[in-house]
Amino acid sequence: MKSINFKALLPHFLAIATFLLVAAIFCKPALNPDLMLDQGDVTSWKGMSHQSFEYKEKYGHFPLWVSNMFSGMPAFQVAGDSKWTPLTLVDQTLQLWLPQPLNFFFLSCICFYFFGLCIGLRPFVSVIGALAFAYSTYSPIIITAGHNTKMLTLAYTPAVLGAAILIFDKKYWMGFSLLSLFTTLQLAQNHQQITYYLFFILCALSLAYIIRLLLKREYLHIGKSLGLMLLSGILALAVSAVSIIPVYDFAKESKRGGQLVINSNANQNDNIKDGKTTGLSKDYAFQWSYGKNETWTLLIPGAMGYGLHYGETEGEYELFPKLSENSRTAEAAGSLPSPELANQIFSNFQQRVYWGTQPFTNGPVYLGAIICLLFILGMFMLDNKHKWWILGVSFLSVLLAWGDNFPAFNYWIFDHFPLYNKFRAPTMALVIPQILCPALAAMLLEKIISRPEEKDWKNFMSGMTAAGAAIILAFLTYSGADFSNENETRTREFNNLLTAKTANIGDVLASKGDAYKAGRDNDLYEGVATYFSQAGLPDAQAKARELMNALQEDRQSFFQKDLTRTFILMLFAGLLLTLFMKRKINTAILLSGICLLTAYDLLDLGSNYLNKYSFERKDAFEENEFPLTAADRQILADNDPNFRVFNTRGLDEAKTSYYHKSIGGYHPAKLGIYDDLLAYQLNGRVNMPVINMLNTKYFIQQDQSGQPIATMNPDALGNCWFVNGIKWVKGPVEEMMSLNQFNPKDTVIIDESYRSIVTGAGAPDSLDKIKMTSFNNDTVRYESESKSARIAVFSEIFYKDWKAYIDGKPADIMKVNYVLRSLQIPAGKHQITFQFEPKLYILGREISFYSSLIVFLIFMTFLVRSALKKNRAEQA
Q1: Which residues touch 5 (CB under 8 Å, ≥6 apart)?
Q2: Beta partners for residue 723, in sequence order
Q3: How many angstroms separate the CA atoms of 346 and 356, rounded?
Q4: At residue 500, does pLDDT exceed 70?
Q5: Which string of DSSP letters, residue by residue, matches 688-750?
Q6: What angle (nearest 5°) sits at the alpha carbon of residue 698, between those of residues 692 and 699?
Q7: Burial, 854: exposed, middle or buried (Cβ in 10 Å; 0-12, 13-18, 19+)?
Q8: Confidence band (pLDDT; 50, 70, 90) for 3?
Q9: What average pLDDT score do residues 621-634 get?
Q10: Burial per residue of 345-364, b for 16 or more beta-carbon CB atoms within 10 angstroms, e otherwise
């Protein structure tokens, strides 16, 4: 065997070194071992999973059911056991065991680099595309938010596309083995919505190849390619069975499987069956819809005022975008008579810069001015092999991102596309152009530097004209906008904030609202004017209007600044391309210049979202995020083994779950019946009988100084009890409405569907008793004694995978009081056991383990075959 050709490998080593260097510079604080990323969703996950990890430390495995959030739910939606496989090592190797967030950016670059090589790009061109993909603003924004699974799933997506292209290019064995590997790794990151968008891209890519191959009558090749892709997908699905099977099964029982609708007339946009939507309600699913004009952010990041991103570390504070002291808003606020009032208004107007249709956003999806220019040029200069399917699916993604800003299209998609009604946040569809725009841009660079033709100059000028037209159109949009659009949810939150006389921006951001629509600034103006009037401020309405005008001028300045920035960047890039086309500069200068411009463009903007303020000290994390308060200590001192806590600050946070069994929590796919209960009984108006039936023994409230205090609820009903009467209802709507006025200690609400297994509530007797004897998450035991058959209600959440046994014999569990479990208990003394038995999860875990071994063996076979083939070629 000949020696390794290091000269051929050198470009790849340089590419890897470049990716490492850029990631290290961009994420410099991550190199400090004492620091960690401050990610809101990860902090929530730590709150959700803390007790599961405590359980594992005690018993050696994770529980299958958690009791510390939403009064109980399947644990595999939070944290679970998985067997180690060789694919775990492959995943870690591709990330080089780098600390977060270096691993995210490095993996994204490596996977796009592989994609570039698959489509025939030279290494340095692939590097430019990889950097553009990895550092598009959406990446640092979701990383700082804590959407790690989303980022990892997105990172692997280009590698899947590259492997699919290898198959279509008749490199069957290589493509099949790598497609199986990368699809498996992509699915394993467990973000189904990103994978769904990958499916759109694969369909578009495949359709383009099939049409071209049909024209050549290569029917056998089409069959082989689609067969290998299908087999790769099946293998990847099998490897991810541990998550896909339980999630698919759970989705039918979660809020994504349907939400209760009490007033169907108010939900005319939804498909309603038996009192529930057939998926997520459209109001909920389409909350984060990109505005039509907001689409300009792909080219001009400040077109809608960015969004709002903030961070704090070691006493420092950073806000982006930040209105300067010289801003018009600062000037208008400074004219208020009271410095305290001026600071309060100016501080809160900081979060009003964004004027898009979303309830709130951390920042825009910005692809980069250079990348957009190259994309436009590519549409004029490239052949038809890739550009039309890329344009088509990218355009589709924009329509999807518009959500309910384009209801005629998106409501139909939501109602008819399989599984689509399980997803939310339509803006996420913009990951499609994040992948494909850098791809087409890189193809254009490759075209320019490798295959110049006489017609290229004419096509180049046509593309530059189109790019200029885009800038002119953006200028016309800027000139025609009045920058006064407001969002109902944000306005309501802001006005409430003024009423509370607080300047706590964090409270504003934490409040998400559940209904919104775009409107004018009138409601905001009225809120400020009313507040000024109540404060006794002279000329209250004039001052409020002055503030609103100032805010609009500052919004306009952000748009103007970034429009100018985009124009200048495109001008420089266009100049470089023109000089190269005229043979005034060489390839090295062109590519270096484009790379530096692209890196500056994206890294400069991205650093506003991921920077030193995004990190905190590891040793202070638990103290800062989960401080053990006096209220917590009081509750933890209670010797009662099983009760629940209601944090009155809100039911949509996970920090309470860190120490206690909370009736609230944070999870995007909570159990549907519990989500309904929260919506109709506990959010806003709190129904105390419902609180009591959930065995809520403590309330965490705030004293006058804002410190948490614990208050005992003497009416909590305990773990279980016998009832004396039954109220029969028909359907979920009637069952929920019956909770509005009932006594859970005396009466149980049961749906008519259970009549066949109920013999009656039985005659009450003062000597009848039932009690919990042990609780171990997945197994709960009780003892009962009664003189007649009785109905027992258990303060545990109903879920189909719980099985009940009375004296070791199976018993039918009833769902009562909308969310709780109940049994018909015979007369006499009995041992009652509830056992959580999610058989599909256990089956999926076994399928995943053995399937992963198959995928790894296929990959290793490919490596061995390649090595042997190379050896034979060298010997020949």
Answers
A1: none
A2: 791
A3: 20
A4: no
A5: HHHHHHTTEEEEEEE-TTS-EEEEE-TT---SEEEESEEEEE-SHHHHHHHTTS--TTTEEEE
A6: 95
A7: middle
A8: low
A9: 88
A10: bbbbbbbbbbbbbbbbbbbb
Q: Give me the residue label for tokens 């959500």.
A: 403
* Cα distances (angstroms) measured from residue 404 to each of 288, 290, 425, 484: 9, 9, 11, 20
Six token digits for residue 96: 């080089």
pLDDT in tens, 564-608: 999 999 999 999 999 999 899 999 999 999 999 999 999 999 999
pTM over 0.85, yes/no: yes
State pLDDT tens for residues 768-793. 999 999 999 999 999 999 999 999 99
Which pairs from 14-20 meet CB under 8 Å and 24+ separation?
A: 14/123, 15/113, 15/123, 15/124, 15/126, 15/127, 15/130, 16/110, 18/127, 19/105, 19/106, 19/109, 19/110, 19/113, 19/127, 19/130, 19/131, 19/134, 20/96, 20/102, 20/106
Contact 111, 2 (CB under 8 A): no
User: How far is Cα 748 from Cα 726, in angstroms, rounded to an integer?
Assistant: 5
Query: What's the Rg (C-alpha) of the chain?
Result: 30
Of 130, 128, 134, 108, residue with least CA distance to 593:
128
Residue indicated by tokens 């009988």: 689
Q: Mean pLDDT lowest for which of 7-21, 34-48, 701-715, 861-875?
A: 861-875
DSSP state, residue 521: S
Q: Which two tokens stand for residue 110?
A: 């490596």
Phi-psi category of residue 70: left, alpha or beta, with phi > 0 → left and psi -120 to 50 → alpha: left
Compute the C-alpha angle 560/566/572, nearest 5°: 135
Nearest to 137 by CA among 425, 366, 369: 366
Rounded CA separation 798/749 (Å) = 14
- C-alpha 170/C-alpha 390 separation (Å) is 21
CA dihedral 94, 60, 191, 67 (to 10 degrees): -160
The two structure tokens encoding residue 717: 């009903």
Q: Is 793 helix (H, G, I), strand (E, B) or coil?
A: strand
Report helix, strand or coil for 139.
Answer: helix
- Dihedral sign, Cα of residue 838, residue 843, residue 846, residue 848: negative
In terms of C-beta density within 10 A (0-12 exposed, 13-18 middle, 19 or more buried), how is residue 292 classed? Answer: middle
At 501, the pLDDT band (50, 70, 90 cuts) reads: very low
- Pairing type for strands 65-66 and 720-723 reads unpaired
Helix 148-168 crosses helix 192-215 at what angle (to 10 degrees)? 10
DSSP 153-177: HHHHHHHHHHHHHHHHTT-HHHHHH
Separation of alpha carbons 487 and 519, rounded Å: 6
**Taking each helix axis from N to C terminus, what angle separates 431-450 and 192-215, rounded to the nearest 10 degrees?**
40
Closest by CA position to 85, among listed 863, 843, 841, 850: 850
Kind of pairing between the strands at 779-786 and 828-836: antiparallel
Angle, vertex CA 250, rays to CA 513 and CA 735, nearest 5: 65
Determine which helix (DSSP H) or strand (DSSP E) holds 405, and give its type and residue range: none
Do residues 330 and 324 touch, judged by C-beta distance below 8 A? yes
Beta-carbon count within 10 A of 814 CB: 21
Average pLDDT over residues 687-707: 91
Distant-in-sequence contacts of 846-851, Cβ < 8 A, 24+ apart: 847/238, 847/241, 847/242, 847/245, 848/82, 848/83, 848/238, 848/239, 848/240, 848/241, 848/242, 848/243, 849/83, 849/85, 851/235, 851/238, 851/239, 851/241
- What domains sit in the chain, N to C, each tagged with a CATH number? 720-837 (2.60.40)
pLDDT in tens, 338-380: 888 888 788 777 777 888 888 888 899 999 999 999 999 999 9
Distance (Å) of CA 867 to CA 2, 525, 872: 12, 71, 9
**Rounded distance between C-alpha atoms, residue 16 and residue 28, angstroms:** 17
Tokens of 334: 């400074």
Backbone angles phi, psi at 167, to 5 degrees: -65, -45
